[in-house]
Amino acid sequence: MLNIIDLESQFSKQKINKAKKLSLREIEEDKKNNFICFIDEGEESYDVQISINEKLEIIDSSCDCSDQGFCNHLLALAIHIFEIKNNKPTKKTKLKAKKISEAELAIENLNSEEIKGWILEFFKKNKEAEIQFLLEFGEKKTDFSDFEIKSIIDKSIQSVVGKKKNITAPEIKKIVDILTKSLEPVEEFIWQNIAKNIALETYNLICDHLMSFQVNIYTTSNRIESFIDKFRTKFAINFNQIKDQLVWEILAQEYWNYYLKGTGSIPHTLYHLLFDIYKYADTPQKKFIAKLVKEQIEIWIKNDVGLRTELREHLLDIMIENEMFLSVKSYFPIAFYKNSYNIKILNELLKFDKNLVEKYCNEIINRNSNEKYNYPYYEILEKLYLENNDLGKLAIIKKLKFQGNPTVEDYIFIEQNETDNGEFKKFRTKILAILRRSFYQYPENAEIYFQILEYEKNYTKMLDVIDENLPTFVINQYSEKLYLIDKEKFLVKVSRRSSWNSVGSEDEKLADFLVSKYDNAHLKSYFSKNSFGFGSYSFSSMVLKKLK
Length: 548
Description:
Elements: H1 7-10, H2 13-20, E1 23-31, E2 34-41, E3 44-52, E4 58-63, H3 72-85, H4 102-108, H5 112-125, H6 127-137, H7 146-161, H8 169-182, H9 184-192, H10 197-215, H11 223-239, H12 245-260, H13 268-279, H14 283-302, H15 309-321, H16 325-328, H17 339-349, H18 354-367, H19 375-388, H20 391-402, H21 408-417, H22 421-437, H23 443-455, H24 459-465, H25 472-485, H26 487-495, H27 504-517, H28 520-527, H29 534-546
Antiparallel strand pairs: 1-2, 2-3, 3-4
Helix pairs in contact: 2-3, 5-6, 6-7, 7-8, 7-10, 10-11, 11-13, 12-14, 15-17, 18-19, 19-20, 20-21, 25-26, 25-27, 27-29, 28-29
C-alpha cells in the first residue's frame, strides 16, 4: 500500500518534478482524509480523488484520465496532501474557472433569435439531430393517434437513412436506438392502457408498420426483428400483470379467440404474442389458456379441422404442460420426419400406451433414411424396454445405437443378453474395426476400444494395436499390465511410434514408467536410434534425459 510519506522513494525524480508542475484547483477535503480536486494539464482537466488512512497510506484513488496505474495527476494530489499533513507551505494553486470552449463563448455572444435560426437551418440538413432534440425538449404527449405513431416511426427511420432501401447494419442500429427512445412515451401509453383494447390495437399497429419497413429494405441486420421481439415480450409481461383477474381472463380469451375461433390467418406478430402471453403467465393464467385451447381442439376433432404440424406442436406443448394431452391425443398423430413433434408425443404416450409407442418408434425408424435421426427413438425404446425388463429387445436397441454412442457398459450388456452368439461375433468384429479406425480423430474411441479389450482380458491385442494414432493417456492406463504381459514387445511398440497423439504431461508419465521398469542400457539401445521424426525423436530425447 502506497504511503504519501515515501513518494520520493517510490517514483523517479523526473516524474515527481513533472507532477509538481501541474495546476491543482478547487482542492477540497469533502470528508475526513478524502481529498478531491481538478487538475489541469494542457487543454484537458481531470477529476482526481485520493483517500488516506491514519497512517497516511493511500487506501483509494481515482482519476478520469486514460493513464494506467498511479498517474501524474494522482501523484500531484498526493504530494499536495503530504505537504498539508506536514504543515509545509504549499504552492499557490490557480483558482481559475474551468476552461470555456470556443462554442460556449460563441453561444454566449449570440441572442436567442440567432440561435433559433441557426438550429432550424441545422435541423434541415441533420434530421437525426432534430429527432434527438425533439426527444429531449419536445412536448411530452400522453395520447397518440394511429397517424402520430406511424409518423414517429417514419421520422425516426428517415432521420438516419432518408428513403434509402439498402441499409447497413450500423444504420439499422442507429434506427433502433432512436426508435427505442422515440417510442418510449407510446409504450408508456400502452402500459397505462394495458387492460383496454387500445393496447393491443397499438401493439399491432407498431409491429405491422415496422414489419412493412423491414420487408421493403435490403439489410443483413436482424435488429428490427429483435426490437419487435423485445417489444412483444414487454407487452406480454405487462399484460399478465393486470391486477383484476376477471378483466385479464376476458381479454385473454378475446386475444386467443383471434387464433382459435378466427376464420382466416392472423399476423405472425399477434400469433407469437399469444404464446408469449402463455409463456410469461403464472400457473392459474396458464391453466385458463390451456382450457381455452383444449375446448377448441375438441371442437376441431369433431369437425375434422386440421392444422400444420408446426402449429399443432405449439398447442401440444400447452396440453402436455397442463396434463391435458390424454383427452385430445387423437388431434396429435405421429408425423413422419417431424422429430421434435414426434418425440414430445411419444414421451407423453409412454405414460399411457407403451405398445403404441413401440409401434410408432419402429415405423419411424424403418422410414428414416439417415441413421442419425433414429437415435432419439432408440432412446425412447431403450427406456421402454428397460421399464418392461425386456432384455433381449433392449440388447438389440443398444446394438443399433452403439456406433453413435459407444460405451463399454452397453457392450457388456449386449454380450450378456444377445441370444445369437453368431450375431454377437459379427457385431464385435464390426464395432472393434470402426473404433480402431477412429483412434486419431476420436481419442475417446481408443479408450472405449481398450476398455472392451480389458473386459475381455485381451492384453495381447492391446499390444498389437499400439501405434502412433493411439493416445498416450490410453497407454498409461494399461502400461503396468502390458509390461507384465510382454515387457519386450511393449518396449518395442512404444519406441517405434513415428509420431505422438499425446500431450506433454502424458508423455512425461510414460517416460517415467519406462525408466522405472527398464535398465539404462536397454532403453539406450532402443531410444538412441530414434533420430528421425518429430514425435519419436522428442519422446526419445525425453526418455534419455531421464536416465541417470
